[in-house]
Design a protein that fits this description.
This protein is of the alpha/beta class. It has 3 helices and 4 strands. Strands 3-2-1-4 form a 4-stranded parallel β-sheet, covered by helices on one side. Helix 1 links the parallel strand 1 and strand 2. The chain starts with a strand and ends with a helix.
């Protein structure tokens, strides 16, 4: 089974990816690598997983995603202080990003 993990480069997402791979799943991830959290791809990303670095709000799936059978949706912009500073951006990313696909 092929599983798409949104937010797969994040803390929780990366652990979900590890568990899915241990269970023998084929995994593909999409992550925006939000500069508020990441400064490029993290060192802990797996070599046996396909990563697509894109923002769900502006993403168009390519053929790598054609045979996805399940989705684990963990993508979100977070942080209480950031939400206070950037409420429109957080709401846009976390609401429109979810509904865009």
């Amino acid at each position: 089974m092929k599983v798409l993990v949104t937010g797969g480069a994040g803390f929780i997402g990366s652990h979900v990816v590890d568990a899915l791979r241990r269970a023998g799943m084929d995994v593909i991830c999409i992550d925006s690598l939000d500069p508020g959290i990441h400064h490029g791809p993290p060192d802990y990303l797996r070599q046996d997983v396909d990563y697509c670095f894109a923002d769900l709000r502006y993403w168009t799936p390519d053929s790598r995603f054609d045979d996805v059978e399940a989705v684990v949706h963990l993508a979100a912009l977070g942080g209480v202080s950031r939400a206070a500073r950037e409420p429109a951006n957080i709401i846009d990313a976390n609401c429109r990003g979810t509904g865009g696909w």
